[in-house]
Amino acid sequence: MKMRAPVGVAVLGSTGSVGRSALEVIARFPKKFRVTALCAGRNAKRLAEQARRFRPSLVCLSEERAAARLDGLPRGTRAVFGEEGMTEAVCAAGARIVLAAASGVSSIRPVIAAAKMGKRIALANKELLVMAGEFLTAAARAGKAEILPVDSEHSAVFQAISGHRREDIRRILLTASGGPFRNHTVRRMRAATVSEALGHPVWRMGEKITVDSATLMNKGLEVIEATWLFGLPPSRIDVLIHPQSAVHSMVEYRDGSLIAQMGIPDMRIPIGYALSYPERLPLELPRFHPHRMDGWTFEPPDFRRFPALSIAYAAAAAGGTAPAVMNAANEAAVGAFLSGRIRFTDIAGVVGKLMNGWRRESRSVTLDDVLRADAEAREEAERVISRKRSTGR
Ligand SMILES: NC(=O)c1ccc[n+]([C@@H]2O[C@H](COP(=O)([O-])OP(=O)(O)OC[C@H]3O[C@@H](n4cnc5c(N)ncnc54)[C@H](OP(=O)(O)O)[C@@H]3O)[C@@H](O)[C@H]2O)c1
What we know:
Mean pLDDT: 95
Radius of gyration: 21 Å
Order of helices and strands: EHEHEHEHEHEHEHEHHHHEEEHHHHH
Number of strands: 11
Number of helices: 16
Strand order of the largest sheet: 4-3-2-1-5-6-7
Structural class: alpha/beta
Low-confidence stretches: none
Bound molecules: NADP nicotinamide-adenine-dinucleotide phosphate
CATH architecture of the largest domain: Orthogonal Bundle
């Protein structure tokens, strides 16, 4: 009997939290997967270590200077850099799956190019759909590519809708742990430190997404992500706070049935499913025992204490460049909070200020418009942040 060759995977963001978990899954199943390319931002040391272990054809860093620091690459591994390098990495013939887990929006054009070629996109980087959902989904349709969610909530929804008719769905319920400040007053949140904001009660993730989980902006980004992945308007995507994080999300149908997916909070499960779909990998992780849980609670989010969530719903409904502006302002504001330049509660303040100044476009937007809006919003957000610092407000 002929053995099937391992499927080639290009990993974007390989040095990050999702990327490293993905490499663990890939390493466990060498007969199923092989790494064709590894891409990261600036971490040359870790990328070179990963290259020695996984022996990809290409490694890519965001800048030439960083790529020049890649020491001790194995024979057969070539270093490239920037958007062009990343595009080469994802479009190479051997890469059948692209795991999009680089933070930020730098991978948007390479991922669109891969989708147009019909590669499977295992998507962790929700910012790509938030900013450019229209263009990425159109590219996937044109190339007959699948976009499979890696975000645990969207993976849960994807599993709960498989085999069901779209017209039978009443709504999607995305669950959220509520983050470290779930029960905090606004006053207490105003004084929150960076280390408190990074103390997520359930998940260990990169810093940016951990802060987004504390403001609930992460859930707002996920609402927008879900509109593109599942083709529902934001009014039919609700958020439920579920601190135990056992139920990863649910779908409600018109006959009143709710179908939920649950399990331990471990990113290797949705990553593995996106890589191996429709097969399930024998991951051999600790098992989930519902009867050992102390009690599950579900409550609606408090939009007053967590204004970022309302801003995201408004941006989702507005469309055009609104989600891109919101996302860019949020990235700038989270960066400013992490470097001690603004307070935790200023994050939503900065984003809200930019959204108040946003004007609806009078025509349909292009990807270039979106990228321009992203760049301009980052600059404007930096100005708002500097003013906040100088006035102390
Ligand atoms: N962590 C989770 O559990 C989780 C769950 C769901 C979704 N996500 C999403 O997955 C994405 C990654 O999250 P994360 O938590 O893994 O982030 P992270 O730990 O901060 O890692 C970010 C990764 O992106 C790379 N990167 C940064 N700038 C880049 C650029 N210009 N070009 C190429 N690569 C670049 C980083 O490389 P360097 O190390 O060189 O900086 C790193 O490999 C985010 O969009 C996040 O929202 C994460």
